[in-house]
Amino acid sequence: YGSLLTYLVNLIVDWIGELYTWGRDEGDGRLGQGDELVTDEGAVNVPLHVYLMPEPVKAVSCGGFFTMALSCGGKAWSWGGNDLYHVMSSNGGKENSKVIELNNKL
Question: Where are the alpha helices (DSSP H) in the chain?
Fold first, then answer.
């Protein structure tokens, strides 16, 4: 269990490895909520479970516009803004990313 609080994104992992995020999404997916949460410059003020994360989380980190997680199984995951190729998109391009496993993309 732990938390990471920043200016734009807040992350918390509970004792069973569930990941929750809140903060500013700005439409780039950095909160890991997929297409269902499009705030376009809006803010999410309550923690939301990252339901797209398929396995328990051991550690998290984030930059200004992207988020990364390490699962308890040792897999790396990333999502969010990708203007500078911070995260891998599903086709290796520059578009914003949903939650994807990095191990298969490296």
Answer: none
Task: Quote the CA–CA distance of 47 and 37 in Å, as a whole number.
Answer: 13
Is the pLDDT at 106 greater than 50? The verdict is: no
Q: What are phi and psi of 36, to 5 degrees?
A: -75, -20
Where residue 26 falls among pLDDT bands split at 50, 70, 90?
Answer: confident
Q: What are phi and psi of 35, to 5 degrees?
A: -75, -10
15 Cβ neighbours under 8 A, 6+ residues apart: 1
Angle at 99 between CA 58 and CA 75, to 5 degrees: 40
* pTM (2 d.p.): 0.76
Report the distance separating Cα 31 and Cα 29, nearest Å: 5
CB-based contacts of 102, cutoff 8 Å, min separation 6:
68, 75, 76, 77, 78, 88
Most confident of 18-27, 34-43, 47-56: 47-56
pLDDT confidence of residue 17: 94
Two tokens, residue 51: 């339901």
